[in-house]
Amino acid sequence: MTNSHRPVPTPPRPTDPGRELRRSVATVCLSGTLGDKLAAAAAAGFDGIELFENDLVVSAWSPAEVRARCADLGLTVELYQPFRDFEAVPADLLRANLTRAEHKFDVLADLGADTLLVCSSVAPAAVDDDALAAEQLRLLADRAAARGIRIAYEALAWGRHVSTWDHAWRIVDRADHPALGICLDSFHVLSREVDPAGIAGIPPGKIFFLQLADAPHLRMDVLQWSRHHRLFPGQGAFDLAGFVRLVLSAGYAGPLSLEVFNDVFRQSDPARTAVDAMRSLVHLEDGLHQAERPDLRFRRLPAAPGLTGYAFTEFAVDGRSGPVLQDVLRGLGFTHTGQHRSKPVQLWEQGDCRVVLNSAVTRPQASGTAAISAFALTTADPHRGVDRAGALHAPVLPRRRGPAEAELAAVAAPDGTSVFLAEPDDGWRADFLPTGNEVAGEAGLVGTDHLGLTQPFDHFDEAGLFYRSVLGLRRLGTEEYAAPFGLMRSRGFTDPDRTVRLALTVAVLRRGDWAPSVADPQHVAFGTDDIFGTAAALDRLGADTLKISDNYYADLVARFGLDEETVARLRRYGILYDRDPGGGELLHLYTPVYGGRIFFEVLQRRAGYDGFGDANAPVRMAAHRHQRLAET
Amino acid sequence: MTNSHRPVPTPPRPTDPGRELRRSVATVCLSGTLGDKLAAAAAAGFDGIELFENDLVVSAWSPAEVRARCADLGLTVELYQPFRDFEAVPADLLRANLTRAEHKFDVLADLGADTLLVCSSVAPAAVDDDALAAEQLRLLADRAAARGIRIAYEALAWGRHVSTWDHAWRIVDRADHPALGICLDSFHVLSREVDPAGIAGIPPGKIFFLQLADAPHLRMDVLQWSRHHRLFPGQGAFDLAGFVRLVLSAGYAGPLSLEVFNDVFRQSDPARTAVDAMRSLVHLEDGLHQAERPDLRFRRLPAAPGLTGYAFTEFAVDGRSGPVLQDVLRGLGFTHTGQHRSKPVQLWEQGDCRVVLNSAVTRPQASGTAAISAFALTTADPHRGVDRAGALHAPVLPRRRGPAEAELAAVAAPDGTSVFLAEPDDGWRADFLPTGNEVAGEAGLVGTDHLGLTQPFDHFDEAGLFYRSVLGLRRLGTEEYAAPFGLMRSRGFTDPDRTVRLALTVAVLRRGDWAPSVADPQHVAFGTDDIFGTAAALDRLGADTLKISDNYYADLVARFGLDEETVARLRRYGILYDRDPGGGELLHLYTPVYGGRIFFEVLQRRAGYDGFGDANAPVRMAAHRHQRLAET
């Protein structure tokens, strides 16, 4: 690596002291025509876009019209991409490639764009010759410079001869042309084994562009992984903040630009996707402030709310589903303790478990059904939490939309559920008049362990990022399992103190007509310190618990080597069992499904069991299906 | 390999001379609860099932109840599977594993099943020691034999130490126990590099079970490939008939059993999937008759119909969409030549292109829309074709359901389209009275090149097998491309003489709410020998052709190096261009979308171009979207 680079004069890139990084999104991240994509990017607050060639090619707008449209929307075309299979070719092909490039320079000129991405060749005609690649890229950069254009050279992870960032950099370094730099793509860098630490040593001004994508760890062909499974930062497994800090330490001051190829985002509402994308960048930037860049100003978020538990879960009910849930709660040992002063809203309690039945929620749902319409978490500073949510482009809901008239800060989750933040002083209870009802019979439920929320197919990764960024939750594991009506994915979240847990589930493929409605239920799981005692109490209270197949218990004996007596006790109460590799145990039971899609779980965690019993989910789903068939 | 094996006495397996092979399907192939799966398998005509353990574990039916249910339905439990991680372990684990096995023997006894599948271990505790594996499997077989049970040992392609069929066979051979044999799974064998030819040398009676699955060639982790992307025979890329003939030459006479893990089948109507599965086995068996097995009788199909071309395409129209399509056809140079004697059905013609507009079809579709309701192909022996379709479990439609009263043999394709088979003598025209209309102006369309049919998401692979098996079509390539509203997959089919082509398309992921209706259109493509002459004629006739973006033509220059004059001619008429690696060229143009989801294509193939211009499909889809937005 040399330090002999001249400064980059073409074109001038001002670096105002203390300026903010620009935020950009590639058009490939968004569904629709170019018009749909630009509108969505602008509405979500992006400063610029990467224009993917195909989006221009199929567009009815000329490049000049695209430029004008972008200007109207306050967007800059930060990059035009990709230009493929250029370098390290025989002379005749080089000539053809330069002609091809001149056509693209025309397009950039009309677009008002100044940077063209050239990705490392995958063509059979390319030879493995760094000197030749450098020479030809220098030639290209020379022609580009004459048009006021820069060439950003990028190593594709599956490039024929150049597939790592350091190899691409050696060629750019060797070519030594002011209009030639490299483009770094976090996916291409982090999906490979090559250590990215050396990026910090790239001379200032030679990183022309930075593309960001997260991804889950997958064992698959890297090209397929890249083209189908990228995610926005914070939705996958890569350390994007660490990566961006490296790039910043090399002096980069260009845009943070998202380039995410994702099969779901490709067919989802682009306005939603763009907000999700912006949220990922805002959250990422919040983790960059340690970077030693006095010339830059990193926008910070209010700190995440320190959560201390679930205050309550609210169900939207109607005249038919309300009484059903009242009976169910009574059977579970709850008491109707409070009645709202002015609305048809009931509070039910047991231990630290609180459920609100709200007949006043105007939420679209079929008659006779129930749904989780809201949940409330306790935190010392609800307003800071809501400020953070707003900064993360989450829809902050008008105050006083809660079941109680007391002021509750609230924000809408991606599936429409309202998330309330409440102070731990129970101030929200002020609007409930005590019923004076005697506690009829409790079942030993001590608190809300978790909510299980089946997510709309298009919004699973969006929801995960929402809960991570807005509430500061951490991701627990992700499980995939075969259920009776198709594959399911389940992902757990919790706060650092494990006071709040959430399990988000989604069908791995969007469901079709065949799957019955019980395939997508929601549930609340209550904890107990004595599952057998609770089960016996539920029995006495006449609770309706889910009948579990005898085959399950026969298999349990074979699978875990449990003694017959324990298994007999489990079977008696329909308690399911799971054990983790560390010896932690989960004992849990379920109710049937009520009001179309609601069920309850009662569970006991032992010896640090940290999961959600996903191994038993297919058993539960089949049992719910049997229940439904028996009813009809 | 030794030949010292004793015959297998436990249990007796009769091999009646001239008997038929049994047909079996694994419960994992089908969606739903065990009840759904058994009902579907029986209705489709299977003789037996492989019972996947989880399907039993989650079932409300005890093993004895499953046995009774199967008996009622005429099904045998051919195999219980899988038993995992048994062999080559330390002594204490062996004891536990044997205890575990005894539990499963109990289950098999209750089920009335006699074969347990043991798959090669993936457990870290297993050691790489064939002698130990053989010794322990021998022990297991001994215990099994005492219960009248056989052990079928199978190499998982991702087994820890045993991952190939020949390795599994060496261990079984070494163990040399009459109740121990191998299970061959076509996926595990054909997904690996090991030559399967040696299978023919396995001594008679030692292949205990045969599992069949096809798969597309995919570059991915073999476990993921196996668990998500298997297909029924004839839907993928494997030579299943060749594989089964090998197994038969080793004396195998057990069931042909489908074991297909497929994400789509897991969530589709099991009744449909089971018929698709049965069709795949019937078609496969038709290719087995060369096997030298005088003791077996292979069921044969009537030969595939020799196709000679498209007779006509029928559109279901109504009072609003009918006149629209009449105008469009007139603009394309068609003449209304025939009127049905008794029904509101019109025949339109040009060259060898024939279109029927049928207002009498009672097909569910929205008011004002049009849809391809049927197409007719010519063949010398329509009745043989329909007999073949019936033997392949395709729904044969009542005669005289065609637009004409003349007898037309017909079968329903998976998307509901009627496929008519007509004799080449045009007898079907007898019921149309000539209108005597003069030919107003033709555009040089010479015949129907292909139909483009977007398939329902759940039925894409089913449709491919339907057209391959029922009509004897061959598969052309499969393309995947990024379109404005998500990824698309397109697969071409044709007869050996290239007289009939079909392009089936499907969204790679099931579409959600965002995708507009123009994302799933149907179309008819007419051929011309002179695309520019036809385009000029269409211009004169006032045809409405689809406006293609100027950007497309600018890119065409860069991409293919076409001369400016040619590109100017293409642009003038909205003609798109594609070139294949062999120099074949496609020139084609489109109409807008009419009646909700119908458009027409006009094309010229040059120099043997054999595809469907999929590279241009996103351009067309964006243009259709622009058209729709301009209309609204």
UniProtKB/TrEMBL annotation, chains A, B:
<feature type="binding site">
    <location>
        <position position="154"/>
    </location>
    <ligand>
        <name>a divalent metal cation</name>
    </ligand>
</feature>
<dbReference type="InterPro" id="IPR043700">
    <property type="entry name" value="DSD"/>
</dbReference>
<keyword id="KW-0560">Oxidoreductase</keyword>
<dbReference type="Pfam" id="PF14696">
    <property type="entry name" value="Glyoxalase_5"/>
</dbReference>
<protein>
    <recommendedName>
        <fullName>3-dehydroshikimate dehydratase</fullName>
        <ecNumber>4.2.1.118</ecNumber>
    </recommendedName>
</protein>
<feature type="binding site">
    <location>
        <position position="185"/>
    </location>
    <ligand>
        <name>a divalent metal cation</name>
    </ligand>
</feature>
<dbReference type="InterPro" id="IPR004360">
    <property type="entry name" value="Glyas_Fos-R_dOase_dom"/>
</dbReference>
<dbReference type="InterPro" id="IPR029068">
    <property type="entry name" value="Glyas_Bleomycin-R_OHBP_Dase"/>
</dbReference>
<feature type="binding site">
    <location>
        <position position="211"/>
    </location>
    <ligand>
        <name>a divalent metal cation</name>
    </ligand>
</feature>
<dbReference type="InterPro" id="IPR037523">
    <property type="entry name" value="VOC_core"/>
</dbReference>
<feature type="binding site">
    <location>
        <position position="259"/>
    </location>
    <ligand>
        <name>a divalent metal cation</name>
    </ligand>
</feature>
<feature type="region of interest" description="Disordered">
    <location>
        <begin position="1"/>
        <end position="21"/>
    </location>
</feature>
<feature type="binding site">
    <location>
        <position position="601"/>
    </location>
    <ligand>
        <name>Mg(2+)</name>
    </ligand>
</feature>
<comment type="pathway">
    <text>Aromatic compound metabolism; 3,4-dihydroxybenzoate biosynthesis.</text>
</comment>
<keyword id="KW-0479">Metal-binding</keyword>
<dbReference type="InterPro" id="IPR013022">
    <property type="entry name" value="Xyl_isomerase-like_TIM-brl"/>
</dbReference>
<feature type="domain" description="VOC">
    <location>
        <begin position="309"/>
        <end position="424"/>
    </location>
</feature>
<dbReference type="Pfam" id="PF00903">
    <property type="entry name" value="Glyoxalase"/>
</dbReference>
<feature type="binding site">
    <location>
        <position position="523"/>
    </location>
    <ligand>
        <name>Mg(2+)</name>
    </ligand>
</feature>
<dbReference type="Pfam" id="PF01261">
    <property type="entry name" value="AP_endonuc_2"/>
</dbReference>
<comment type="function">
    <text>Catalyzes the conversion of 3-dehydroshikimate to protocatechuate (3,4-dihydroxybenzoate), a common intermediate of quinate and shikimate degradation pathways.</text>
</comment>
<feature type="domain" description="VOC">
    <location>
        <begin position="447"/>
        <end position="592"/>
    </location>
</feature>
<dbReference type="GO" id="GO:0051213">
    <property type="term" value="F:dioxygenase activity"/>
</dbReference>
<dbReference type="InterPro" id="IPR050312">
    <property type="entry name" value="IolE/XylAMocC-like"/>
</dbReference>
<comment type="similarity">
    <text>Belongs to the bacterial two-domain DSD family.</text>
</comment>
<dbReference type="InterPro" id="IPR036237">
    <property type="entry name" value="Xyl_isomerase-like_sf"/>
</dbReference>
<feature type="binding site">
    <location>
        <position position="450"/>
    </location>
    <ligand>
        <name>Mg(2+)</name>
    </ligand>
</feature>
<keyword id="KW-0223">Dioxygenase</keyword>
<keyword id="KW-0456">Lyase</keyword>
